[in-house]
Design a protein that fits this description.
Layout: H1 2-5, H2 18-33, H3 39-42, E1 43-51, E2 55-58, H4 59-73, E3 77-87, E4 95-105, E5 119-131, E6 134-142, H5 144-156
Parallel strand pairs: 1-6
Antiparallel strand pairs: 1-2, 3-4, 4-5, 5-6
């Protein structure tokens, strides 16, 4: 939680708006309530996602499977956007970059092993390429090393 306190208040880039706001609201629904149906309104059904560990994910179904590993491990928490930008250039797809965090406790069984109760902060960035209002390509940079360290150091204490 100390990581997140540095960025209390609205994002340092100003209040969310437009496509960035829509994407952030989608991920807030996914991370905080496991509302994966929100991805139907934000992601092309054939989207390509680049995830941690060099994983390449194709389509919403695989994206849901990937995110479920996190949401099962950390079922209750708080999603926050710290910075965002939209890049709009003529003759190119719009691109969105969001730096965000998710504060939670490791209380569920998912991709991160047996529940430990460890308080964690997931620090991440998402870069999305949009076409006709939907994500067609997305990159997730999630600091899993820090996440594993938070879990293991809590387990050892």
């Amino acid at each position: 939680e100390d990581y997140v306190k540095r960025w209390e208040g609205p994002p340092d880039s100003g209040p969310l708006s437009g496509a960035a706001k829509n994407l952030a609201q989608t991920y807030q629904a996914v991370w905080e309530q496991s509302e994966f149906i929100a991805l139907e309104k934000s992601h092309n059904r054939a989207c390509q996602i680049h995830a941690p560990e060099g994983k390449v994910i194709y389509g919403r179904d695989q994206l849901i499977e990937f995110l479920t590993g996190y949401t099962k491990s950390f079922p209750k928490g708080s999603f926050r956007v710290h910075h965002w930008i939209v890049n709009e250039e003529s003759s190119k797809n719009n691109r969105i970059a969001i730096r965000w965090s998710f504060s939670a406790e490791h209380t569920g069984l998912g991709s991160f092993g047996e529940p430990t109760g460890a308080p964690v902060v997931i620090m991440a960035m998402t870069h999305a390429e949009m076409q006709e209002g939907l994500v067609v390509r997305e990159y997730h940079a999630i600091d899993e090393i820090s996440l594993w360290m938070q879990i293991s150091s809590y387990s050892m204490s």
